[in-house]
């Protein structure tokens, strides 16, 4: 019996020793791993600090592309890059947000060109009209976005739109069609015979009215503007062949099937039926 107890005791002690050795090995392995991670972290921090202070990555150029209305100085003032700043230390998203606060900016991209160039690529809004609200004027782009109040120093020669509210968040179909017509006028010579649009009035009941710099007052109605203008081109060409002055006319194009034309004085007043002429098609 004592021999059996002694054997059991020795077996238990042997198991305990093995467990202790295994535990010490596991703890030693974990400690070695932690030490290795700490050493690698310190090496990484040291290497990163060396890179951030390396002259090779200091920003030397910040070119700005896509400028028309704005100047490079205005953009760089918003970017706020410090002299000798490391290109890896800048947050390009933060820089882009700084530039985007300018109302002229539609889109902006800030990127790195290694080793030492930071590039700012902007896309400016293209104003297509002035919107009159009370005594103030606002710039509207080709998407119908009113992006800034006209200020001193804004040199623009644009048609004026009246009849809309600058506070409206949703643009009407009539306004969208009007802006599409503006794009056609500014992008081609298809309607050069009409002159340039000087003013457009939008009325959600009676439609669009245009005034051109040739003294033409065009009542366009609600839709189908380009087809109506193509028909008007034929009418004005016929009038020219007859030797009839095509300036200072009031033209009703609301009904594309029947174009009514009245001559008016240079002061803009439509002449009476007795002293003027009307042409119906």
Topology of this structure?
Blueprint: H1 2-52, E1 64-65, H2 72-79, H3 92-100, E2 105-113, E3 117-124, E4 127-133, E5 136-141, E6 146-149, E7 160-162, H4 173-187, E8 197-203, E9 207-212, E10 217-221, H5 225-241, E11 249-252, E12 260-263, E13 278-280
Parallel strand pairs: 1-3, 4-7, 7-8, 10-11
Antiparallel strand pairs: 2-3, 4-5, 5-6, 8-9, 9-10, 11-12, 12-13
Write structural notes for this entry:
The chain is of the alpha/beta class and 281 residues long. 36% of the residues lie in helices and 24% in strands. The strands form 2 sheets. A 10-stranded mixed sheet has the order 6-5-4-7-8-9-10-11-12-13, with helices on one face. Helix 4 links the parallel strand 7 and strand 8. The longest helix has 51 residues, at 2-52.
Order of helices and strands: HEHHEEEEEEHEEEHEEE
Content of β-strand: 15-25%
Q: Fraction of residues in helices?
A: 25-40%
The gross shape turns out to be elongated
The CATH class label of the largest domain is: Alpha Beta
Q: Which spans of ≥5 residues are poorly predicted at pLDDT below 50?
A: 267-279
CATH topology of the largest domain: Rossmann fold
- Kindly state the number of beta strands: 13
Kindly report how far apart the N and C termini lie.
Answer: 131 Å
Number of structurally distinct domains: 3
Order of strands across the main sheet? 6-5-4-7-8-9-10-11-12-13
| Rg | 38 Å
> What is the average per-residue confidence, as pLDDT, rounded to a whole number?
83
Our count of helices gives 5
Major sheet details? 10 strands, mixed
Q: Name the CATH architecture of the largest domain.
A: 3-Layer(aba) Sandwich
Question: At the fourth CATH level, what is the homologous superfamily of the largest domain?
Answer: Cell division protein FtsQ/DivIB
Backbone structural class: alpha/beta
